Amino acid sequence: MRAIVCQQFGDLDNLSYREYPRPEVGADEVLVRTRAVGVNFPDLLLVKGLYQAKPTLPFVPGLECAGVIDAIGENVTNLNVGDRVAATNPAFTTYAELTAVPASNAYVLPAGVEDEKAAALLCAHGTAYHALSQRAKLRPGETLLVTGAAGGTGLAAVQIGHALGARVIAACSNEKKLDIAKRHGAEAGINYRSGDLKAAVRELTNGRGVDLIYDPVGGSLAEPLSRVLAWAGRWLVIGFASGDIPNLALNLPLVKGYSVVGVFWGNFVQREPQTARRNHQHLFDLCATGKLQPHIHEVLPLENAAKALQMIATRKVNGKIVLKP
Ligand SMILES: NC(=O)c1ccc[n+]([C@@H]2O[C@H](COP(=O)([O-])OP(=O)(O)OC[C@H]3O[C@@H](n4cnc5c(N)ncnc54)[C@H](OP(=O)(O)O)[C@@H]3O)[C@@H](O)[C@H]2O)c1
H or E stretch including 43? Predict the structure, then answer.
Protein backbone atom coordinates (compact mmCIF):
# COMPACT_ATOMS: atom_id res chain seq x y z
CA MET A 1 0.00 0.00 0.00
CA ARG A 2 1.01 3.67 -0.39
CA ALA A 3 1.49 5.83 2.70
CA ILE A 4 3.07 9.03 3.95
CA VAL A 5 6.12 7.96 5.92
CA CYS A 6 8.13 10.03 8.39
CA GLN A 7 11.78 9.01 8.15
CA GLN A 8 13.07 11.18 10.96
CA PHE A 9 11.75 13.84 13.35
CA GLY A 10 12.09 17.47 12.35
CA ASP A 11 11.49 19.06 8.98
CA LEU A 12 8.45 18.28 6.82
CA ASP A 13 10.94 17.30 4.07
CA ASN A 14 11.41 14.12 6.09
CA LEU A 15 7.99 12.96 4.87
CA SER A 16 7.83 10.80 1.77
CA TYR A 17 4.96 9.18 -0.12
CA ARG A 18 5.94 5.58 -0.81
CA GLU A 19 5.18 1.88 -0.59
CA TYR A 20 4.82 0.70 3.01
CA PRO A 21 3.99 -2.74 4.50
CA ARG A 22 0.29 -3.52 4.75
CA PRO A 23 -0.73 -3.30 8.44
CA GLU A 24 -1.46 -6.48 10.36
CA VAL A 25 -4.89 -6.62 11.97
CA GLY A 26 -4.92 -7.37 15.70
CA ALA A 27 -7.66 -9.51 17.28
CA ASP A 28 -9.55 -6.44 18.54
CA GLU A 29 -8.89 -4.29 15.47
CA VAL A 30 -10.43 -3.53 12.11
CA LEU A 31 -8.53 -2.68 8.92
CA VAL A 32 -9.93 0.45 7.25
CA ARG A 33 -9.37 1.20 3.55
CA THR A 34 -9.23 4.97 3.82
CA ARG A 35 -11.23 7.26 1.54
CA ALA A 36 -10.58 10.54 3.37
CA VAL A 37 -8.03 11.50 6.03
CA GLY A 38 -8.31 14.52 8.33
CA VAL A 39 -5.21 16.67 8.92
CA ASN A 40 -4.62 18.08 12.40
CA PHE A 41 -2.14 20.34 14.17
CA PRO A 42 -1.01 17.44 16.41
CA ASP A 43 0.16 15.63 13.22
CA LEU A 44 2.59 18.51 12.71
CA LEU A 45 3.86 18.19 16.30
CA LEU A 46 4.24 14.44 15.80
CA VAL A 47 6.38 14.82 12.67
CA LYS A 48 8.50 17.49 14.36
CA GLY A 49 9.04 15.20 17.36
CA LEU A 50 7.26 17.68 19.67
CA TYR A 51 4.15 15.62 20.48
CA GLN A 52 3.51 13.93 23.85
CA ALA A 53 4.11 10.54 22.19
CA LYS A 54 7.14 9.73 20.02
CA PRO A 55 6.55 6.79 17.68
CA THR A 56 9.40 4.53 16.63
CA LEU A 57 10.90 5.66 13.30
CA PRO A 58 9.96 5.27 10.51
CA PHE A 59 6.23 5.80 11.12
CA VAL A 60 3.03 6.84 9.37
CA PRO A 61 1.35 9.90 10.98
CA GLY A 62 -2.36 10.71 11.18
CA LEU A 63 -5.11 10.55 13.80
CA GLU A 64 -8.38 10.20 11.89
CA CYS A 65 -9.96 8.91 8.72
CA ALA A 66 -13.12 7.71 7.05
CA GLY A 67 -13.33 4.66 4.83
CA VAL A 68 -14.59 1.11 4.45
CA ILE A 69 -13.71 -1.90 6.59
CA ASP A 70 -11.45 -4.29 4.64
CA ALA A 71 -10.86 -6.92 7.34
CA ILE A 72 -11.77 -7.56 10.99
CA GLY A 73 -9.88 -9.15 13.88
CA GLU A 74 -11.08 -12.44 15.37
CA ASN A 75 -12.62 -10.82 18.50
CA VAL A 76 -14.60 -8.16 16.63
CA THR A 77 -18.34 -8.83 16.64
CA ASN A 78 -19.98 -5.41 16.24
CA LEU A 79 -18.50 -4.44 12.84
CA ASN A 80 -18.38 -6.15 9.45
CA VAL A 81 -16.27 -6.08 6.30
CA GLY A 82 -17.82 -3.46 3.99
CA ASP A 83 -19.11 -1.17 6.79
CA ARG A 84 -18.47 2.51 6.06
CA VAL A 85 -16.86 4.01 9.16
CA ALA A 86 -15.06 7.00 10.58
CA ALA A 87 -12.15 6.07 12.85
CA THR A 88 -9.54 7.54 15.14
CA ASN A 89 -6.23 5.82 15.61
CA PRO A 90 -4.36 6.15 18.93
CA ALA A 91 -1.33 4.58 17.21
CA PHE A 92 -1.54 7.17 14.36
CA THR A 93 -0.99 5.67 10.82
CA THR A 94 -4.08 7.13 9.09
CA TYR A 95 -2.03 8.91 6.35
CA ALA A 96 -2.19 5.67 4.36
CA GLU A 97 -4.39 3.64 2.05
CA LEU A 98 -4.95 1.13 4.88
CA THR A 99 -4.90 1.64 8.64
CA ALA A 100 -5.54 -0.86 11.46
CA VAL A 101 -7.56 0.72 14.31
CA PRO A 102 -9.09 -0.63 17.52
CA ALA A 103 -12.70 -1.64 16.81
CA SER A 104 -13.74 0.57 19.73
CA ASN A 105 -12.42 3.59 17.78
CA ALA A 106 -14.46 2.92 14.62
CA TYR A 107 -17.94 4.44 14.19
CA VAL A 108 -20.42 3.29 11.55
CA LEU A 109 -21.47 6.33 9.51
CA PRO A 110 -25.03 7.37 8.73
CA ALA A 111 -25.84 7.79 5.02
CA GLY A 112 -26.02 11.61 5.17
CA VAL A 113 -22.39 12.09 6.22
CA GLU A 114 -19.95 11.99 3.29
CA ASP A 115 -16.46 10.54 3.76
CA GLU A 116 -14.68 13.92 3.63
CA LYS A 117 -16.97 15.46 6.25
CA ALA A 118 -16.74 12.40 8.49
CA ALA A 119 -12.93 12.49 8.39
CA ALA A 120 -13.06 16.18 9.36
CA LEU A 121 -15.41 15.70 12.33
CA LEU A 122 -13.38 13.59 14.74
CA CYS A 123 -10.31 15.23 16.30
CA ALA A 124 -11.23 18.93 16.08
CA HIS A 125 -14.97 18.63 16.67
CA GLY A 126 -14.48 15.76 19.10
CA THR A 127 -12.16 17.95 21.15
CA ALA A 128 -14.53 20.92 21.12
CA TYR A 129 -17.54 18.76 21.98
CA HIS A 130 -15.75 17.04 24.87
CA ALA A 131 -14.36 20.35 26.14
CA LEU A 132 -17.66 22.21 26.08
CA SER A 133 -19.92 19.34 27.20
CA GLN A 134 -18.05 17.11 29.64
CA ARG A 135 -15.26 19.44 30.81
CA ALA A 136 -17.00 22.85 30.96
CA LYS A 137 -20.61 21.70 31.28
CA LEU A 138 -21.67 24.60 29.08
CA ARG A 139 -25.17 25.89 29.80
CA PRO A 140 -27.35 27.63 27.17
CA GLY A 141 -27.06 31.40 27.42
CA GLU A 142 -23.46 31.38 28.67
CA THR A 143 -20.86 33.48 26.87
CA LEU A 144 -18.01 31.60 25.19
CA LEU A 145 -14.80 33.25 23.97
CA VAL A 146 -12.86 31.17 21.39
CA THR A 147 -9.29 32.02 20.32
CA GLY A 148 -7.85 30.81 17.01
CA ALA A 149 -11.54 30.75 16.11
CA ALA A 150 -11.10 30.01 12.40
CA GLY A 151 -8.63 27.15 12.97
CA GLY A 152 -9.48 23.45 13.20
CA THR A 153 -10.51 23.04 16.79
CA GLY A 154 -11.35 26.75 17.26
CA LEU A 155 -13.94 26.84 14.46
CA ALA A 156 -15.35 23.54 15.76
CA ALA A 157 -15.82 25.19 19.18
CA VAL A 158 -17.59 28.14 17.55
CA GLN A 159 -20.00 25.77 15.79
CA ILE A 160 -20.62 23.48 18.75
CA GLY A 161 -20.84 26.33 21.27
CA HIS A 162 -23.44 27.98 19.06
CA ALA A 163 -25.32 24.69 18.61
CA LEU A 164 -25.38 24.18 22.41
CA GLY A 165 -26.90 27.63 22.93
CA ALA A 166 -23.89 29.75 23.93
CA ARG A 167 -23.30 33.34 22.88
CA VAL A 168 -20.02 32.93 20.99
CA ILE A 169 -17.32 35.60 20.70
CA ALA A 170 -14.63 34.69 18.15
CA ALA A 171 -11.06 35.96 18.48
CA CYS A 172 -8.66 35.71 15.51
CA SER A 173 -5.66 37.38 13.92
CA ASN A 174 -7.44 38.93 10.94
CA GLU A 175 -10.83 40.09 9.65
CA LYS A 176 -11.18 37.35 7.03
CA LYS A 177 -10.89 34.69 9.72
CA LEU A 178 -13.43 36.57 11.86
CA ASP A 179 -15.88 36.57 8.95
CA ILE A 180 -15.56 32.79 8.66
CA ALA A 181 -16.16 32.36 12.40
CA LYS A 182 -19.23 34.61 12.17
CA ARG A 183 -20.59 32.54 9.28
CA HIS A 184 -20.35 29.49 11.56
CA GLY A 185 -22.17 30.93 14.56
CA ALA A 186 -20.06 33.59 16.29
CA GLU A 187 -22.12 36.61 17.28
CA ALA A 188 -19.17 38.98 17.68
CA GLY A 189 -15.51 39.05 16.74
CA ILE A 190 -12.25 40.43 18.12
CA ASN A 191 -9.10 40.92 16.04
CA TYR A 192 -6.33 40.29 18.57
CA ARG A 193 -3.60 41.36 16.22
CA SER A 194 -4.91 44.88 15.68
CA GLY A 195 -7.00 45.36 18.84
CA ASP A 196 -6.91 45.05 22.65
CA LEU A 197 -8.43 41.67 23.56
CA LYS A 198 -9.15 42.54 27.19
CA ALA A 199 -10.81 45.89 26.40
CA ALA A 200 -12.85 44.36 23.57
CA VAL A 201 -14.19 41.54 25.80
CA ARG A 202 -15.11 44.06 28.50
CA GLU A 203 -16.98 46.15 25.96
CA LEU A 204 -18.82 43.18 24.44
CA THR A 205 -19.88 41.86 27.86
CA ASN A 206 -20.66 45.22 29.55
CA GLY A 207 -17.73 44.71 31.90
CA ARG A 208 -18.96 41.32 33.17
CA GLY A 209 -16.48 39.08 31.35
CA VAL A 210 -17.09 35.70 29.69
CA ASP A 211 -18.24 32.44 31.28
CA LEU A 212 -15.96 30.28 29.18
CA ILE A 213 -12.65 30.60 27.39
CA TYR A 214 -11.70 27.97 24.81
CA ASP A 215 -8.03 28.55 24.01
CA PRO A 216 -6.05 26.47 21.48
CA VAL A 217 -3.41 29.21 21.02
CA GLY A 218 -1.72 30.04 24.37
CA GLY A 219 1.37 32.24 24.29
CA SER A 220 0.94 35.99 24.77
CA LEU A 221 -2.87 35.71 24.64
CA ALA A 222 -2.85 34.11 28.09
CA GLU A 223 -2.21 37.36 29.95
CA PRO A 224 -5.32 39.20 28.68
CA LEU A 225 -7.34 35.96 28.82
CA SER A 226 -6.46 35.51 32.50
CA ARG A 227 -8.33 38.76 33.23
CA VAL A 228 -11.54 38.43 31.22
CA LEU A 229 -13.35 35.57 32.96
CA ALA A 230 -16.56 36.24 34.86
CA TRP A 231 -17.13 34.84 38.36
CA ALA A 232 -17.34 31.00 38.29
CA GLY A 233 -15.95 30.99 34.75
CA ARG A 234 -14.02 28.10 33.18
CA TRP A 235 -10.86 28.41 31.12
CA LEU A 236 -10.48 25.43 28.79
CA VAL A 237 -6.82 24.74 28.04
CA ILE A 238 -6.85 23.18 24.57
CA GLY A 239 -3.39 23.73 23.11
CA PHE A 240 -0.49 25.98 22.29
CA ALA A 241 -0.54 26.64 18.55
CA SER A 242 1.56 29.76 19.19
CA GLY A 243 4.38 27.42 20.23
CA ASP A 244 4.55 28.98 23.70
CA ILE A 245 3.12 27.38 26.87
CA PRO A 246 2.16 30.28 29.15
CA ASN A 247 2.49 30.51 32.93
CA LEU A 248 -0.48 31.59 35.02
CA ALA A 249 -0.36 33.65 38.22
CA LEU A 250 -2.59 31.49 40.46
CA ASN A 251 -3.89 34.47 42.42
CA LEU A 252 -6.14 35.28 39.43
CA PRO A 253 -8.31 32.11 39.50
CA LEU A 254 -8.47 32.54 43.29
CA VAL A 255 -9.55 36.19 43.30
CA LYS A 256 -11.91 35.86 40.34
CA GLY A 257 -13.31 32.46 41.35
CA TYR A 258 -12.66 30.77 38.01
CA SER A 259 -11.41 27.28 37.12
CA VAL A 260 -8.65 26.25 34.75
CA VAL A 261 -9.74 23.04 33.02
CA GLY A 262 -7.41 20.79 31.04
CA VAL A 263 -8.72 18.99 27.94
CA PHE A 264 -7.03 16.00 26.26
CA TRP A 265 -9.36 14.48 23.67
CA GLY A 266 -7.01 11.61 22.67
CA ASN A 267 -6.76 10.31 26.24
CA PHE A 268 -10.49 10.87 26.76
CA VAL A 269 -11.31 8.64 23.74
CA GLN A 270 -9.16 5.84 25.16
CA ARG A 271 -10.26 6.22 28.80
CA GLU A 272 -13.97 6.91 28.25
CA PRO A 273 -14.82 5.14 24.97
CA GLN A 274 -18.58 4.99 25.57
CA THR A 275 -18.89 8.74 26.18
CA ALA A 276 -16.60 9.46 23.22
CA ARG A 277 -18.78 7.24 21.02
CA ARG A 278 -21.91 9.13 22.12
CA ASN A 279 -20.19 12.46 21.39
CA HIS A 280 -19.12 11.36 17.92
CA GLN A 281 -22.55 9.87 17.21
CA HIS A 282 -24.16 13.19 18.14
CA LEU A 283 -21.75 15.03 15.82
CA PHE A 284 -22.56 12.67 12.93
CA ASP A 285 -26.29 13.15 13.60
CA LEU A 286 -25.90 16.95 13.58
CA CYS A 287 -23.99 16.68 10.30
CA ALA A 288 -26.46 14.25 8.70
CA THR A 289 -29.39 16.55 9.51
CA GLY A 290 -27.55 19.63 8.19
CA LYS A 291 -27.33 21.34 11.59
CA LEU A 292 -23.54 21.34 11.65
CA GLN A 293 -21.16 21.04 8.70
CA PRO A 294 -17.38 20.99 9.14
CA HIS A 295 -15.71 23.78 7.18
CA ILE A 296 -13.36 22.07 4.72
CA HIS A 297 -10.70 24.51 3.61
CA GLU A 298 -9.30 22.26 0.89
CA VAL A 299 -9.16 18.63 -0.21
CA LEU A 300 -5.70 17.51 -1.37
CA PRO A 301 -4.29 14.19 -2.61
CA LEU A 302 -2.70 12.12 0.17
CA GLU A 303 0.71 12.58 -1.42
CA ASN A 304 0.43 16.33 -0.64
CA ALA A 305 0.38 15.77 3.14
CA ALA A 306 3.56 17.83 3.68
CA LYS A 307 1.98 20.77 1.85
CA ALA A 308 -1.14 20.48 4.05
CA LEU A 309 0.96 20.45 7.23
CA GLN A 310 2.96 23.44 5.99
CA MET A 311 -0.29 25.36 5.48
CA ILE A 312 -1.24 24.59 9.10
CA ALA A 313 2.19 25.68 10.34
CA THR A 314 1.79 29.03 8.56
CA ARG A 315 -1.77 29.72 9.85
CA LYS A 316 -3.30 29.46 6.37
CA VAL A 317 -5.98 26.86 7.10
CA ASN A 318 -9.53 27.75 8.08
CA GLY A 319 -11.36 24.75 9.50
CA LYS A 320 -9.88 21.53 8.15
CA ILE A 321 -7.80 20.10 5.34
CA VAL A 322 -8.73 16.62 4.14
CA LEU A 323 -6.41 14.27 2.23
CA LYS A 324 -7.71 11.81 -0.38
CA PRO A 325 -5.80 8.54 -0.85
N1 LIG B 1 -6.37 19.28 23.86
C2 LIG B 1 -6.67 18.48 22.86
O3 LIG B 1 -7.20 17.39 23.03
C4 LIG B 1 -6.34 18.94 21.46
C5 LIG B 1 -6.96 18.40 20.33
C6 LIG B 1 -6.68 18.93 19.07
C7 LIG B 1 -5.74 19.95 18.95
N8 LIG B 1 -5.12 20.42 20.07
C9 LIG B 1 -4.13 21.49 20.01
O10 LIG B 1 -4.81 22.72 19.75
C11 LIG B 1 -3.94 23.59 19.05
C12 LIG B 1 -4.64 24.11 17.82
O13 LIG B 1 -5.06 23.05 17.00
P14 LIG B 1 -5.93 23.37 15.71
O15 LIG B 1 -6.31 22.08 15.11
O16 LIG B 1 -7.00 24.32 16.03
O17 LIG B 1 -4.83 24.08 14.79
P18 LIG B 1 -5.04 25.07 13.55
O19 LIG B 1 -6.17 24.60 12.72
O20 LIG B 1 -3.73 25.21 12.91
O21 LIG B 1 -5.48 26.44 14.22
C22 LIG B 1 -4.66 27.05 15.18
C23 LIG B 1 -4.89 28.53 15.17
O24 LIG B 1 -3.97 29.08 16.12
C25 LIG B 1 -3.60 30.38 15.72
N26 LIG B 1 -2.15 30.55 15.85
C27 LIG B 1 -1.54 31.49 16.59
N28 LIG B 1 -0.22 31.39 16.50
C29 LIG B 1 0.05 30.37 15.67
C30 LIG B 1 1.24 29.80 15.18
N31 LIG B 1 2.45 30.27 15.55
N32 LIG B 1 1.17 28.76 14.33
C33 LIG B 1 -0.03 28.26 13.98
N34 LIG B 1 -1.22 28.77 14.42
C35 LIG B 1 -1.18 29.82 15.27
C36 LIG B 1 -4.10 30.57 14.28
O37 LIG B 1 -5.21 31.45 14.36
P38 LIG B 1 -5.00 33.04 14.21
O39 LIG B 1 -4.20 33.27 12.96
O40 LIG B 1 -6.39 33.54 14.14
O41 LIG B 1 -4.27 33.46 15.45
C42 LIG B 1 -4.58 29.20 13.85
O43 LIG B 1 -5.73 29.29 13.04
C44 LIG B 1 -2.67 22.80 18.78
O45 LIG B 1 -1.72 23.11 19.78
C46 LIG B 1 -3.12 21.36 18.91
O47 LIG B 1 -2.06 20.50 19.24
C48 LIG B 1 -5.40 19.93 21.31
Answer: helix 41-48
> Other CB atoms closer than 10 Å to residue 69's CB: what's the count?
22
Please indicate whether residue 217, judged by its CB atom, sits closer than 6 Å to ligand 1: yes
CA distance 143 to 140: 9
Q: How far apart are CA 66 and CA 232, in angstroms?
A: 39
Average pLDDT, the chain: 97
Which domains are delineated in the chain? 2-120+294-324 (3.90.180.10), 125-265 (3.40.50.720)
Record the pTM: 0.97
Query: Packing angle between helix 123-130 and helix 152-163, nearest 10 degrees?
Result: 50
Ligand 1 contacts CB of residue 41 (under 6 A): yes
The pLDDT tens digits for 203-261 are: 999 999 999 999 999 999 999 999 999 999 999 999 999 999 999 999 999 999 999 99
* Residue 319 alpha carbon, nearest atom of ligand 1: 19
Asked if 141 and 124 touch (Cβ cutoff 8 Å), the reply is: no
Kindly state the greatest CA–CA separation across the chain: 60
Q: How far is CA 295 from CA 153, 180, 181, 319, in A?
A: 11, 9, 10, 5
Q: Comparing C-alpha atoms, which of 7, 131, 149, 23 is closest to residue 87? A: 23
**Whose C-alpha lies nearest to ligand 1, atom 28?**
242
Can you say whether residue 10 is alpha, beta or left, with left for phi > 0 and alpha for psi between -120 and 50 degrees? left
List, in sequence order, every beta strand (DSSP E) within the chain: 2-6, 15-19, 29-39, 64-72, 84-88, 98-102, 106-108, 143-147, 167-172, 188-191, 210-215, 229-237, 259-262, 296-301, 320-324
Cis previous bond, 246, omega within 30:
no
Ligand 1 centroid to residue 239 C-alpha, Å? 7
218: helix, coil or strand? coil
